[in-house]
Each structure stands twice: as C-alpha cells, then as structure tokens.
Amino acid sequence: MPSVQPLPSESEVLPQPYLLFLGDVTEPGYAKTAFGLRDWARERCVGEFACEAATVTTGLPFLTPVQAHAQGARTLVIGVANAGGVIPPQWIPGLVQALDAGLDIVSGMHAKLDEIPALRAAALRLGRKLIDIRRPPRGIAIASGRKRSGKRLLTVGTDCALGKKYTALALARAFAARGVDADFRATGQTGILIAGGGIPIDAVVSDFAAGAAEMLSPDAAPDHWDVIEGQGSLFHPAYAGVSLALLHGSQPDVVVVCHRPGRERVLGHADYFLPSIEETIELALRLGRRTQPAIRCGGVSLNTSHLDERDALRLFEAERERLGCAVADPLRGGAAFERLVTDCLA
C-alpha cells in the first residue's frame, strides 16, 4: 500500500485491534465499513458482533465483547454505513455492553456517540473513549479552482456501495507496485479507518466541500498521483451534491467509473433506476471539464463478486468491446486489471 499522509482530522491514533459491530443490518451494502476493514485491514480485526436481528456477516468469528477483549480487541468499530448515518435505539444495549467489556467505541456515523446519553454516561463511568471519526478538520477554505501540480484519479460510480473505495485502494496499490509515487486519499469513514487519514467529505458544510477536496489532494510533484476515493453518484437523488463537490475540487486528470452488473435500482431509493455506464462517463467528463479541461476516462471497474470467474472474464471482454475502454474487476486482478492500470497512467 502506498504511503498515506495523515490529514488534520486524523491526529488521534485509534486503539487496535477491532471488534466489528454489524448492528441489525440485513442489507450487505449497508455493512460496507465492516467489509472494508475485513478486506483491507484484516490484521486489525479479531471478529464481529451484532444484534439478534442482523442477517449480514463478514465471515469473521462471532465474539461477544468480553470474548473479543480477552482475545486482544481494544475497540468496537461500528461497521455500518446506513442511510443518514443514524445510531438506532436497538443498538444501544450492545454498545454499552462493549464499553462494559473494556472496549472503546469508534464510529463513522453522522450521529455522534457523545450525544447519546446512555453511551456518554457509560463511557464516563468506565473511563472509556467515544471516538467519532466523521468530523472534518477545521480551517477548510472555499474552493479556489486553482490548478494544482501533480496528477489525480477519482473513482466515480453509477450508485453508492458498489466499489469506488475498493477500486481506489487497488489502483493506488497497483500504481505503487509499478514504481509510481501514489497516495490513496480517503473521503469516507471506512477509507479513513483503513488509511489512517482523510476527510469525511459528506460531513463538510456544502459550501466548503469542494475546498475540502482541494485540501485532500494538495500540490504535489509532477509525477505524483493522488488516487481519490469517490462518494455517492452524480445521478443519486440524495448524494449527488457530495459527488459533484468531489469532482470539481479534485480536478481529476482521470476518472474510473465503477458499477455493479445486475443492479438496476439505486440502493435505498428503489423508485430510481441506475444510469448506464455510458451516461455516467459522459456526465462525469462534462461536469469535470469545468475545473479540469483535460479530464478523461481511464476505464471501468466492475464489481463482479456475484459472478464466477468464467462469466466475469466474458463480461470484461464484452464490455471492453462495447465501451471501447479497459474494463476490469480490481479485486480479481489479472490481465484486464493490468490494462486498466496502464490506461489510467497513460
């Protein structure tokens, strides 16, 4: 993994290892924080814990907080990224149980841990920490629009929770493997937990969000790449504003479009159909030219975790022929992914 420079919001070292909390989640897309830590920071995770109603699992051992503490865990991480970032009442007994067991709690939700009376009281009584990482740094300026030195890649998507973070992480790692100076730049709670630095872009006041994206990817050496984690979708009925601020503030030289084949409707907004890959490329380039006239699409990243290897490879080839650009699943690697890396760096 390429180096990551901590940003002002990440001055505190989080106690490790982690117990991943899945709440009462029944939709895998809303457990992306837990899955992200499992896949990219497995060495920091001892197991998972959930409410009885949960049906989603990371496949890690199920441990009570007492068992997890006995195995070395020091923090319970809320592994959920639900709509609105809420902490529902039914989670509170499990979170208090973690505090009683000797664990601190880390949350990337919009709801703040210390604003929940039962958690605040338990933490004070037990001397535990309540750590909210979805807090932007101070001193963010309004975007200047000034062209910055260095190179930038931004992942954009047809929807939420379909691979923008994984694609950015995989590309940053692949760039480094080729000897390219590159940094992964996290813009969401999961990426920040994985990387140890970043700005939670959706927690920034809207007037300053593009400025936060500029702050996230500052001037750099001419051959340095910042690989920036995308958020939401330019077509999303709720989150398009965050996506546009990232696009304008990042001023990416390259965008990679992320999509999950087979998903037809927006996650959590079933009245809305997903845009096509072609529509997403066209809109990203059209809007991106406002701050980066030379923006181009480096290729397409497909989340094919639901397909077998043969079907995935056939899909890559068919979509490459149809779209006229590199198409790959970064987690599968292989020749298709190497073509995507080459085209992004071209």
From TrEMBL:
Location of the D-glutamate N-acetyltransferase-like N-terminal domain: 44-136
Residue ranges annotated for the D-glutamate N-acetyltransferase-like C-terminal domain, each copy included: 142-336
Entry-linked SUPFAM superfamilies: P-loop containing nucleoside triphosphate hydrolases
Name used for this protein in its record: DUF1611 domain-containing protein
Source taxonomy: Bacteria, Pseudomonadati, Pseudomonadota, Gammaproteobacteria, Lysobacterales
